[in-house]
Specification:
This protein is of the alpha/beta class. Helices cover 32% and strands 14% of the residues. The strands form 2 sheets. It has a 4-stranded mixed sheet, covered by helices on one side. A two-stranded antiparallel sheet has the order 3-4. Helix 2 packs across helix 4. The longest helix is centred in the middle third of the chain and has 15 residues. The radius of gyration is 16 Å and the shape is globular.
């Protein structure tokens, strides 16, 4: 008999934790950012437990190193480009360290070189991370073990 684990799923970059401590991250195509500090945005939906120096390392790793003030409350929805918003979602992955990541067009606003770098870094930094990604960027297919092409 196969033991089943119940996992509750919520949408858009939210993190889910079940009774067995399995974390799942769901990254949607569009980010919704509230007017808040960068530290709060990265930590969403949880409280931040990292030192600022660790957050700066994460920002550098995902290509957001130009943002230097973690505590200033700004309207990042207007300040950040689409690609920077996508990078912010990947910063959340680094903070929360999920076991599995579902991505829906999560790099569509990034150029291929940037998307490749972020996905390669994820693979390098999280050896046990499972990733399922929906993308139209065929140049990224080589980064994955399996590719399923769906035709209409």
């Amino acid at each position: 008999m196969v033991q089943q684990k119940k996992v509750n799923v919520i949408h858009h970059t939210d993190m889910v934790k079940d009774q067995n401590h399995m974390l799942i991250s769901i990254g949607a195509k569009k980010s919704y950012l509230t007017k808040s500090s960068l530290k709060e945005l990265i930590s969403y939906p949880n409280e931040n437990a990292l030192a600022d120096s660790e957050i700066y390392k994460i920002l550098d790793r995902v290509g957001l190193g130009k943002f230097k003030n973690l505590d200033e409350v700004l309207d990042y929805a207007k300040i950040m480009s689409g690609g920077e918003k996508e990078r912010l979602n990947f910063a959340r992955v680094y903070l929360l360290k999920p076991k599995f990541l579902f991505l829906d067009e999560a790099t569509s606003a990034l150029d291929i070189a940037s998307a490749t770098e972020i996905l390669t870094n994820l693979r390098s930094d999280f050896k046990e991370l499972g990733v399922m990604m929906i993308t139209h960027q065929s140049e990224l297919f080589d980064l994955f073990d399996y590719v399923i092409k769906i035709k209409s």
